[in-house]
Amino acid sequence: MSANKRITIDPITRLEGHGKIEIFLNDEGDVANTYFQVPELRGFEQFCVGRLAEDMPVITNRICGVCPEAHHMASVKALDMLFAVEPPSAAKKIRELLYMAFYVTDHTTHFYALGGPDFIVGPDAPPSERNILGVIKKVGLDIGKQVIDCRARNHYVIKMLGGRGIHPAAGQPGGWSKPVTEEERKEIEQIAKDNIDFALFSLKAFDDIVLKNSNYLDLVTSDIYLHKTYYMGTVDEKNRVNFYDGMIRVVDPEGKEFVKYHPSEYYQHIAEHVESWTYLKYPYLKKVGWKGFVDGIDSGVYAASPLSRLNVSDSMATPLAQEHFEKMYETFGSKKINGRYQPIHHRLATHWARLIELLYAAEHMLELATDPEITSPEVRKIPEGIKGIGIGSVEAPRGTLTHHYESDERGVLTKVNMIVGTTNNYAPMTMSIKRAAEKLIQKGKIVEEGILNRIEMAFRLYDPCLSCATHSLPGKMPMIVNIRNQDGEVIRTFKRD
Predict the structure, then answer these.
(1) Is residue 460 part of a domain?
(2) Are the CB atoms for 453 and 434 separated by under 8 Å?
(3) Which residues pair with 24 in a beta bridge?
(4) Does 48 carry a binding-site annotation?
(5) Where does the pLDDT of residue 473 fall: very low under 50, low under 70, confident under 90, or very high at 90 and above?
(6) Is 418 annotated as a binding residue?
(7) Could you give the number of structural domains in the chain?
(8) Among 37-41, 65-69, 115-119, 213-217, which is the least confidently predicted range?
(9) Which domain does 208 fall in, by range?
(10) Residue 24 · residue 33 · CB < 8 Å
(11) Residue 160, annotated as binding a ligand
(12) Mean pLDDT score, 277-282
Protein backbone atom coordinates (compact mmCIF):
# COMPACT_ATOMS: atom_id res chain seq x y z
CA MET A 1 0.00 0.00 0.00
CA SER A 2 1.56 3.27 -1.05
CA ALA A 3 1.89 6.19 1.31
CA ASN A 4 -0.82 8.83 1.32
CA LYS A 5 -3.07 6.88 -1.02
CA ARG A 6 -6.32 8.68 -1.70
CA ILE A 7 -9.76 7.15 -2.27
CA THR A 8 -12.37 9.51 -3.69
CA ILE A 9 -16.13 8.95 -3.74
CA ASP A 10 -17.38 11.61 -6.14
CA PRO A 11 -20.21 12.20 -6.55
CA ILE A 12 -21.81 10.67 -3.49
CA THR A 13 -25.25 9.37 -4.28
CA ARG A 14 -28.85 9.26 -3.11
CA LEU A 15 -28.96 12.61 -1.34
CA GLU A 16 -30.20 16.10 -2.12
CA GLY A 17 -27.40 18.33 -3.43
CA HIS A 18 -23.76 17.58 -4.26
CA GLY A 19 -20.85 16.38 -2.15
CA LYS A 20 -17.82 14.14 -2.20
CA ILE A 21 -15.80 12.05 0.21
CA GLU A 22 -11.99 11.96 0.28
CA ILE A 23 -10.32 9.13 2.22
CA PHE A 24 -6.55 9.27 2.86
CA LEU A 25 -4.65 6.10 3.83
CA ASN A 26 -1.31 5.87 5.64
CA ASP A 27 1.63 3.64 4.73
CA GLU A 28 0.03 0.67 6.51
CA GLY A 29 -3.16 0.97 4.50
CA ASP A 30 -5.24 2.25 7.42
CA VAL A 31 -7.39 5.36 7.27
CA ALA A 32 -5.39 8.46 8.22
CA ASN A 33 -8.18 10.99 7.66
CA THR A 34 -11.38 11.62 5.75
CA TYR A 35 -13.06 14.74 4.38
CA PHE A 36 -16.75 15.16 3.60
CA GLN A 37 -16.70 18.14 1.27
CA VAL A 38 -19.64 20.17 0.03
CA PRO A 39 -18.42 22.15 -3.01
CA GLU A 40 -21.65 24.03 -3.83
CA LEU A 41 -22.50 27.55 -2.68
CA ARG A 42 -25.86 29.31 -3.00
CA GLY A 43 -25.64 32.46 -0.92
CA PHE A 44 -29.29 32.99 0.11
CA GLU A 45 -28.34 34.65 3.38
CA GLN A 46 -26.63 37.47 1.52
CA PHE A 47 -28.77 38.13 -1.54
CA CYS A 48 -31.95 38.26 0.60
CA VAL A 49 -30.57 41.30 2.43
CA GLY A 50 -32.24 44.43 1.04
CA ARG A 51 -35.45 42.64 0.09
CA LEU A 52 -38.85 43.08 1.70
CA ALA A 53 -39.26 40.73 4.66
CA GLU A 54 -42.76 39.71 3.55
CA ASP A 55 -41.27 38.17 0.38
CA MET A 56 -39.14 35.68 2.31
CA PRO A 57 -41.66 32.78 2.50
CA VAL A 58 -41.73 32.57 -1.31
CA ILE A 59 -38.03 33.29 -1.78
CA THR A 60 -36.61 30.86 0.76
CA ASN A 61 -38.84 28.00 -0.31
CA ARG A 62 -36.79 28.07 -3.55
CA ILE A 63 -33.77 26.99 -1.53
CA CYS A 64 -34.85 23.43 -2.09
CA GLY A 65 -37.24 21.45 -4.28
CA VAL A 66 -37.43 18.66 -1.70
CA CYS A 67 -38.26 20.53 1.51
CA PRO A 68 -39.65 23.96 0.49
CA GLU A 69 -42.49 23.47 2.98
CA ALA A 70 -40.02 23.52 5.88
CA HIS A 71 -38.47 26.82 4.75
CA HIS A 72 -41.94 28.26 4.06
CA MET A 73 -43.08 27.44 7.62
CA ALA A 74 -39.92 28.66 9.36
CA SER A 75 -40.11 31.85 7.30
CA VAL A 76 -43.75 32.70 8.08
CA LYS A 77 -43.14 32.00 11.77
CA ALA A 78 -40.17 34.39 11.66
CA LEU A 79 -42.43 37.01 10.04
CA ASP A 80 -45.09 36.53 12.76
CA MET A 81 -42.46 37.67 15.23
CA LEU A 82 -40.94 40.36 13.02
CA PHE A 83 -44.37 41.95 12.41
CA ALA A 84 -45.44 41.35 16.05
CA VAL A 85 -48.62 39.47 15.18
CA GLU A 86 -50.11 36.28 16.62
CA PRO A 87 -51.93 34.12 14.02
CA PRO A 88 -55.40 32.79 14.83
CA SER A 89 -55.55 29.27 16.21
CA ALA A 90 -57.13 27.90 13.00
CA ALA A 91 -54.29 29.32 10.91
CA LYS A 92 -51.69 27.55 13.05
CA LYS A 93 -53.60 24.29 12.64
CA ILE A 94 -53.80 24.66 8.85
CA ARG A 95 -50.06 25.30 8.72
CA GLU A 96 -49.47 22.21 10.81
CA LEU A 97 -51.89 20.15 8.70
CA LEU A 98 -49.95 20.96 5.53
CA TYR A 99 -46.73 20.25 7.39
CA MET A 100 -47.88 16.75 8.38
CA ALA A 101 -48.68 15.93 4.73
CA PHE A 102 -45.20 17.17 3.84
CA TYR A 103 -43.58 14.96 6.48
CA VAL A 104 -45.39 11.88 5.21
CA THR A 105 -44.24 12.38 1.64
CA ASP A 106 -40.69 13.43 2.59
CA HIS A 107 -39.98 10.51 4.92
CA THR A 108 -41.52 8.15 2.35
CA THR A 109 -39.09 9.44 -0.27
CA HIS A 110 -36.08 8.78 1.89
CA PHE A 111 -37.07 5.31 3.03
CA TYR A 112 -37.98 3.95 -0.38
CA ALA A 113 -35.78 5.95 -2.78
CA LEU A 114 -32.69 7.13 -0.86
CA GLY A 115 -31.87 5.15 2.28
CA GLY A 116 -34.07 2.09 1.86
CA PRO A 117 -32.30 0.58 -1.19
CA ASP A 118 -29.26 -0.19 1.02
CA PHE A 119 -31.41 -2.67 2.94
CA ILE A 120 -34.19 -3.64 0.53
CA VAL A 121 -31.86 -4.26 -2.43
CA GLY A 122 -28.74 -4.77 -0.32
CA PRO A 123 -25.54 -2.78 0.35
CA ASP A 124 -23.48 -5.03 -1.95
CA ALA A 125 -25.92 -5.02 -4.87
CA PRO A 126 -24.72 -3.41 -8.12
CA PRO A 127 -25.05 0.42 -7.95
CA SER A 128 -27.39 0.29 -10.96
CA GLU A 129 -29.90 -1.62 -8.81
CA ARG A 130 -29.61 0.36 -5.55
CA ASN A 131 -32.35 2.81 -6.40
CA ILE A 132 -36.14 3.12 -6.47
CA LEU A 133 -36.38 0.91 -9.57
CA GLY A 134 -34.35 -1.76 -7.80
CA VAL A 135 -36.65 -1.46 -4.80
CA ILE A 136 -39.74 -1.90 -6.99
CA LYS A 137 -38.14 -4.91 -8.69
CA LYS A 138 -37.46 -6.42 -5.26
CA VAL A 139 -40.78 -5.73 -3.52
CA GLY A 140 -43.12 -5.80 -6.50
CA LEU A 141 -44.93 -3.32 -8.70
CA ASP A 142 -47.99 -3.11 -6.41
CA ILE A 143 -45.89 -1.80 -3.51
CA GLY A 144 -44.15 0.59 -5.87
CA LYS A 145 -47.58 1.96 -6.81
CA GLN A 146 -48.39 2.41 -3.11
CA VAL A 147 -45.25 4.51 -2.67
CA ILE A 148 -46.11 6.66 -5.69
CA ASP A 149 -49.74 6.97 -4.55
CA CYS A 150 -48.63 8.10 -1.09
CA ARG A 151 -46.48 10.86 -2.51
CA ALA A 152 -49.17 11.90 -5.00
CA ARG A 153 -52.02 12.21 -2.49
CA ASN A 154 -49.93 14.19 0.01
CA HIS A 155 -48.64 16.59 -2.62
CA TYR A 156 -52.30 17.00 -3.58
CA VAL A 157 -52.96 18.12 0.02
CA ILE A 158 -49.96 20.46 -0.09
CA LYS A 159 -51.31 22.01 -3.31
CA MET A 160 -54.84 22.22 -1.89
CA LEU A 161 -53.72 24.05 1.26
CA GLY A 162 -50.58 25.79 0.08
CA GLY A 163 -51.58 26.86 -3.42
CA ARG A 164 -48.88 24.85 -5.20
CA GLY A 165 -47.73 21.23 -5.15
CA ILE A 166 -44.20 22.39 -4.39
CA HIS A 167 -43.02 25.82 -3.23
CA PRO A 168 -46.25 26.66 -1.32
CA ALA A 169 -47.33 30.29 -1.26
CA ALA A 170 -50.22 30.46 1.23
CA GLY A 171 -48.26 31.37 4.36
CA GLN A 172 -48.63 35.00 5.42
CA PRO A 173 -47.38 36.94 8.45
CA GLY A 174 -50.25 36.64 10.88
CA GLY A 175 -51.79 33.49 9.43
CA TRP A 176 -52.80 31.77 6.21
CA SER A 177 -54.22 33.08 2.95
CA LYS A 178 -57.35 30.94 2.74
CA PRO A 179 -59.54 28.76 5.02
CA VAL A 180 -60.25 25.05 4.57
CA THR A 181 -63.68 24.11 3.21
CA GLU A 182 -65.69 21.19 4.55
CA GLU A 183 -65.27 19.33 1.24
CA GLU A 184 -61.49 19.75 1.45
CA ARG A 185 -61.49 18.63 5.08
CA LYS A 186 -63.31 15.40 4.20
CA GLU A 187 -60.78 14.63 1.46
CA ILE A 188 -57.86 15.25 3.79
CA GLU A 189 -59.41 13.08 6.50
CA GLN A 190 -59.53 10.09 4.14
CA ILE A 191 -55.99 10.79 2.93
CA ALA A 192 -54.77 10.86 6.54
CA LYS A 193 -56.37 7.46 7.17
CA ASP A 194 -54.66 6.06 4.07
CA ASN A 195 -51.38 7.53 5.33
CA ILE A 196 -51.71 5.69 8.65
CA ASP A 197 -52.20 2.39 6.80
CA PHE A 198 -49.18 3.14 4.63
CA ALA A 199 -47.00 4.05 7.62
CA LEU A 200 -47.93 0.82 9.41
CA PHE A 201 -47.18 -1.10 6.21
CA SER A 202 -43.75 0.58 5.98
CA LEU A 203 -42.91 -0.28 9.59
CA LYS A 204 -43.94 -3.89 8.92
CA ALA A 205 -41.66 -3.92 5.88
CA PHE A 206 -38.77 -2.60 8.01
CA ASP A 207 -39.47 -5.31 10.57
CA ASP A 208 -39.53 -8.08 7.94
CA ILE A 209 -36.59 -6.87 5.85
CA VAL A 210 -34.20 -5.47 8.47
CA LEU A 211 -35.05 -6.59 11.99
CA LYS A 212 -35.68 -10.24 11.04
CA ASN A 213 -32.44 -10.40 9.03
CA SER A 214 -29.60 -11.22 11.43
CA ASN A 215 -26.96 -9.72 9.12
CA TYR A 216 -28.80 -6.41 8.88
CA LEU A 217 -29.61 -6.37 12.59
CA ASP A 218 -25.93 -6.96 13.38
CA LEU A 219 -25.03 -4.08 11.05
CA VAL A 220 -27.57 -1.72 12.65
CA THR A 221 -26.41 -2.54 16.19
CA SER A 222 -22.66 -2.70 15.39
CA ASP A 223 -20.14 -0.06 16.45
CA ILE A 224 -19.41 0.90 12.82
CA TYR A 225 -22.18 3.49 12.89
CA LEU A 226 -22.07 4.59 16.54
CA HIS A 227 -21.40 7.99 18.08
CA LYS A 228 -22.19 9.30 21.56
CA THR A 229 -23.06 12.95 21.03
CA TYR A 230 -25.55 15.48 22.35
CA TYR A 231 -29.01 15.43 20.69
CA MET A 232 -31.41 18.22 19.76
CA GLY A 233 -35.12 18.38 18.89
CA THR A 234 -38.35 20.33 19.43
CA VAL A 235 -40.73 19.13 22.13
CA ASP A 236 -44.21 20.18 23.24
CA GLU A 237 -45.29 21.11 26.76
CA LYS A 238 -45.22 17.42 27.74
CA ASN A 239 -41.75 16.88 26.23
CA ARG A 240 -43.19 14.93 23.29
CA VAL A 241 -41.98 15.11 19.67
CA ASN A 242 -43.38 18.14 17.84
CA PHE A 243 -42.49 19.18 14.28
CA TYR A 244 -44.17 22.61 14.14
CA ASP A 245 -43.84 24.36 17.49
CA GLY A 246 -42.46 24.11 21.01
CA MET A 247 -39.18 24.41 22.91
CA ILE A 248 -35.77 23.25 21.73
CA ARG A 249 -34.52 20.51 24.02
CA VAL A 250 -30.93 19.24 24.13
CA VAL A 251 -29.87 16.11 26.04
CA ASP A 252 -26.34 14.94 26.75
CA PRO A 253 -24.93 11.55 25.66
CA GLU A 254 -26.25 9.99 28.88
CA GLY A 255 -29.75 11.29 28.20
CA LYS A 256 -29.80 14.04 30.83
CA GLU A 257 -31.45 17.31 29.80
CA PHE A 258 -28.63 19.76 29.06
CA VAL A 259 -30.77 22.76 28.14
CA LYS A 260 -34.27 23.65 26.96
CA TYR A 261 -34.81 27.03 25.33
CA HIS A 262 -37.20 29.02 23.16
CA PRO A 263 -36.19 28.99 19.45
CA SER A 264 -35.70 32.79 19.54
CA GLU A 265 -32.83 32.25 22.01
CA TYR A 266 -30.85 29.96 19.69
CA TYR A 267 -27.88 32.30 19.34
CA GLN A 268 -27.29 32.08 23.10
CA HIS A 269 -26.74 28.34 22.77
CA ILE A 270 -25.49 27.64 19.24
CA ALA A 271 -22.25 28.82 17.63
CA GLU A 272 -20.81 27.91 14.23
CA HIS A 273 -17.32 26.62 13.41
CA VAL A 274 -15.79 27.09 9.95
CA GLU A 275 -13.28 24.90 8.07
CA SER A 276 -11.41 26.17 5.00
CA TRP A 277 -12.12 23.08 2.88
CA THR A 278 -15.92 23.19 2.73
CA TYR A 279 -18.79 25.66 2.27
CA LEU A 280 -20.86 24.21 5.12
CA LYS A 281 -20.53 25.51 8.65
CA TYR A 282 -20.42 23.35 11.78
CA PRO A 283 -22.90 24.37 14.50
CA TYR A 284 -21.98 23.32 18.04
CA LEU A 285 -23.15 23.91 21.60
CA LYS A 286 -21.63 27.20 22.67
CA LYS A 287 -21.48 26.36 26.39
CA VAL A 288 -19.58 23.11 25.73
CA GLY A 289 -17.34 24.46 22.98
CA TRP A 290 -15.85 23.24 19.70
CA LYS A 291 -13.28 20.51 20.43
CA GLY A 292 -12.93 19.16 16.89
CA PHE A 293 -14.55 16.17 15.26
CA VAL A 294 -14.90 14.10 18.42
CA ASP A 295 -17.88 12.81 20.36
CA GLY A 296 -18.45 12.49 24.09
CA ILE A 297 -19.82 14.73 26.80
CA ASP A 298 -16.90 17.22 26.54
CA SER A 299 -17.49 17.88 22.82
CA GLY A 300 -20.06 20.45 21.70
CA VAL A 301 -21.00 18.38 18.65
CA TYR A 302 -24.70 17.54 18.59
CA ALA A 303 -27.05 15.78 16.17
CA ALA A 304 -30.53 16.93 15.13
CA SER A 305 -32.12 14.09 13.18
CA PRO A 306 -35.21 11.86 13.43
CA LEU A 307 -33.34 9.68 15.93
CA SER A 308 -32.25 12.81 17.82
CA ARG A 309 -35.85 14.04 18.09
CA LEU A 310 -36.90 10.73 19.62
CA ASN A 311 -33.84 10.70 21.90
CA VAL A 312 -34.74 14.07 23.43
CA SER A 313 -38.44 13.25 23.87
CA ASP A 314 -40.20 11.53 26.74
CA SER A 315 -42.75 9.97 24.38
CA MET A 316 -44.73 10.34 21.15
CA ALA A 317 -47.98 12.32 21.08
CA THR A 318 -50.02 9.71 19.18
CA PRO A 319 -50.85 6.15 20.29
CA LEU A 320 -49.60 3.99 17.41
CA ALA A 321 -46.35 5.92 17.10
CA GLN A 322 -45.87 5.51 20.86
CA GLU A 323 -46.14 1.71 20.52
CA HIS A 324 -43.37 1.64 17.91
CA PHE A 325 -41.31 4.18 19.89
CA GLU A 326 -41.27 1.81 22.86
CA LYS A 327 -40.49 -1.20 20.66
CA MET A 328 -37.45 0.53 19.16
CA TYR A 329 -35.89 1.55 22.48
CA GLU A 330 -36.54 -1.87 24.02
CA THR A 331 -34.96 -3.58 20.98
CA PHE A 332 -31.76 -1.63 21.61
CA GLY A 333 -31.89 -2.43 25.34
CA SER A 334 -32.32 1.20 26.34
CA LYS A 335 -33.34 1.70 29.98
CA LYS A 336 -35.70 4.32 31.32
CA ILE A 337 -34.23 6.97 33.61
CA ASN A 338 -36.59 9.49 35.19
CA GLY A 339 -39.38 8.29 32.90
CA ARG A 340 -37.41 8.62 29.66
CA TYR A 341 -35.41 6.12 27.63
CA GLN A 342 -31.64 6.53 27.43
CA PRO A 343 -30.52 7.69 23.97
CA ILE A 344 -29.84 5.23 21.16
CA HIS A 345 -26.41 6.02 19.71
CA HIS A 346 -26.47 3.53 16.81
CA ARG A 347 -26.97 5.92 13.92
CA LEU A 348 -28.51 3.39 11.49
CA ALA A 349 -31.49 3.33 13.88
CA THR A 350 -32.30 6.71 12.32
CA HIS A 351 -34.05 4.83 9.49
CA TRP A 352 -36.37 3.20 12.04
CA ALA A 353 -36.94 6.50 13.84
CA ARG A 354 -37.85 8.10 10.52
CA LEU A 355 -40.64 5.55 9.96
CA ILE A 356 -41.96 6.10 13.50
CA GLU A 357 -42.11 9.82 12.69
CA LEU A 358 -43.92 8.98 9.45
CA LEU A 359 -46.60 7.21 11.50
CA TYR A 360 -46.80 10.09 13.98
CA ALA A 361 -47.25 12.59 11.14
CA ALA A 362 -50.05 10.50 9.64
CA GLU A 363 -51.84 10.15 12.98
CA HIS A 364 -51.50 13.83 13.81
CA MET A 365 -52.72 14.73 10.32
CA LEU A 366 -55.93 12.83 11.09
CA GLU A 367 -56.25 14.62 14.44
CA LEU A 368 -55.99 17.99 12.72
CA ALA A 369 -58.32 17.03 9.85
CA THR A 370 -61.04 16.07 12.34
CA ASP A 371 -60.52 19.13 14.55
CA PRO A 372 -63.74 21.26 14.36
CA GLU A 373 -61.66 24.45 14.27
CA ILE A 374 -59.82 23.45 11.08
CA THR A 375 -62.64 24.90 8.89
CA SER A 376 -62.84 28.19 10.79
CA PRO A 377 -62.87 31.24 8.47
CA GLU A 378 -60.65 33.14 10.95
CA VAL A 379 -57.27 32.38 9.38
CA ARG A 380 -55.40 35.66 9.46
CA LYS A 381 -54.73 38.69 11.62
CA ILE A 382 -53.38 41.65 9.66
CA PRO A 383 -50.06 42.96 11.11
CA GLU A 384 -50.08 46.55 12.33
CA GLY A 385 -46.45 47.11 13.32
CA ILE A 386 -42.85 46.08 12.82
CA LYS A 387 -40.77 44.71 15.68
CA GLY A 388 -37.67 44.56 13.49
CA ILE A 389 -36.46 41.09 14.45
CA GLY A 390 -38.07 37.76 13.74
CA ILE A 391 -36.90 34.21 14.47
CA GLY A 392 -38.90 31.19 13.36
CA SER A 393 -38.15 27.53 13.85
CA VAL A 394 -39.63 24.19 12.82
CA GLU A 395 -38.34 20.65 12.75
CA ALA A 396 -37.43 19.99 9.14
CA PRO A 397 -37.26 16.26 8.34
CA ARG A 398 -33.46 16.53 8.49
CA GLY A 399 -33.23 18.52 11.73
CA THR A 400 -34.06 21.77 13.50
CA LEU A 401 -34.48 24.61 10.98
CA THR A 402 -34.10 28.23 12.12
CA HIS A 403 -34.75 31.42 10.12
CA HIS A 404 -33.53 34.68 11.68
CA TYR A 405 -34.43 38.01 10.03
CA GLU A 406 -33.76 41.60 11.04
CA SER A 407 -35.27 44.60 9.25
CA ASP A 408 -35.43 48.39 9.32
CA GLU A 409 -38.61 50.34 10.12
CA ARG A 410 -39.87 49.80 6.55
CA GLY A 411 -39.60 46.01 6.74
CA VAL A 412 -36.53 45.90 4.48
CA LEU A 413 -34.17 43.14 5.57
CA THR A 414 -30.81 44.15 7.02
CA LYS A 415 -29.70 40.68 8.21
CA VAL A 416 -30.59 37.08 7.38
CA ASN A 417 -29.25 33.98 9.11
CA MET A 418 -30.38 30.39 8.69
CA ILE A 419 -29.35 27.25 10.52
CA VAL A 420 -30.65 24.48 8.33
CA GLY A 421 -31.53 20.95 9.42
CA THR A 422 -28.64 19.36 7.55
CA THR A 423 -26.18 21.95 8.85
CA ASN A 424 -26.79 20.77 12.41
CA ASN A 425 -25.64 17.31 11.37
CA TYR A 426 -22.57 18.25 9.36
CA ALA A 427 -20.10 17.47 12.15
CA PRO A 428 -21.81 14.16 13.05
CA MET A 429 -21.86 13.20 9.36
CA THR A 430 -18.16 14.00 9.03
CA MET A 431 -17.42 11.89 12.11
CA SER A 432 -19.65 9.01 11.01
CA ILE A 433 -17.95 8.83 7.61
CA LYS A 434 -14.50 8.70 9.21
CA ARG A 435 -15.53 6.05 11.73
CA ALA A 436 -17.13 3.85 9.06
CA ALA A 437 -14.02 4.22 6.86
CA GLU A 438 -11.71 3.33 9.77
CA LYS A 439 -13.76 0.24 10.60
CA LEU A 440 -14.20 -0.97 7.02
CA ILE A 441 -10.80 -0.16 5.44
CA GLN A 442 -7.92 -1.76 7.35
CA LYS A 443 -4.39 -2.87 6.43
CA GLY A 444 -4.52 -3.69 2.78
CA LYS A 445 -8.10 -4.85 2.75
CA ILE A 446 -9.37 -4.60 -0.79
CA VAL A 447 -11.65 -1.61 -1.16
CA GLU A 448 -14.59 -2.97 -3.08
CA GLU A 449 -17.57 -0.97 -4.24
CA GLY A 450 -19.78 -2.51 -1.54
CA ILE A 451 -17.43 -1.17 1.17
CA LEU A 452 -17.51 2.30 -0.34
CA ASN A 453 -21.30 2.12 -0.33
CA ARG A 454 -21.25 1.17 3.36
CA ILE A 455 -19.19 4.32 3.95
CA GLU A 456 -21.80 6.34 2.03
CA MET A 457 -24.46 4.79 4.27
CA ALA A 458 -22.82 6.67 7.15
CA PHE A 459 -23.94 10.04 5.73
CA ARG A 460 -27.05 8.79 3.93
CA LEU A 461 -28.76 7.81 7.19
CA TYR A 462 -28.90 11.53 8.08
CA ASP A 463 -30.79 12.23 4.81
CA PRO A 464 -28.66 15.32 4.11
CA CYS A 465 -29.96 18.12 1.92
CA LEU A 466 -26.75 19.89 0.94
CA SER A 467 -28.50 22.29 -1.44
CA CYS A 468 -30.41 23.59 1.61
CA ALA A 469 -27.36 23.84 3.79
CA THR A 470 -24.94 26.04 1.84
CA HIS A 471 -25.98 29.65 2.19
CA SER A 472 -23.02 31.52 3.61
CA LEU A 473 -21.28 34.45 1.96
CA PRO A 474 -18.98 36.31 1.65
CA GLY A 475 -16.54 33.92 0.10
CA LYS A 476 -15.07 32.95 -3.24
CA MET A 477 -16.64 30.31 -5.38
CA PRO A 478 -14.09 28.87 -7.83
CA MET A 479 -15.42 29.32 -11.34
CA ILE A 480 -14.20 28.86 -14.91
CA VAL A 481 -16.28 30.25 -17.79
CA ASN A 482 -15.32 29.14 -21.32
CA ILE A 483 -16.67 30.97 -24.38
CA ARG A 484 -16.70 28.70 -27.44
CA ASN A 485 -17.24 29.42 -31.11
CA GLN A 486 -19.78 27.60 -33.25
CA ASP A 487 -17.29 24.73 -33.77
CA GLY A 488 -16.93 24.19 -30.03
CA GLU A 489 -13.43 25.68 -29.78
CA VAL A 490 -12.60 27.69 -26.66
CA ILE A 491 -11.89 31.25 -27.75
CA ARG A 492 -11.80 32.94 -24.36
CA THR A 493 -11.65 31.86 -20.71
CA PHE A 494 -12.58 33.74 -17.55
CA LYS A 495 -11.29 32.26 -14.31
CA ARG A 496 -11.88 33.02 -10.65
CA ASP A 497 -9.89 30.91 -8.14
Answers:
(1) no
(2) no
(3) 6, 33
(4) no
(5) very low
(6) yes
(7) 1
(8) 37-41
(9) 44-428
(10) yes
(11) no
(12) 82
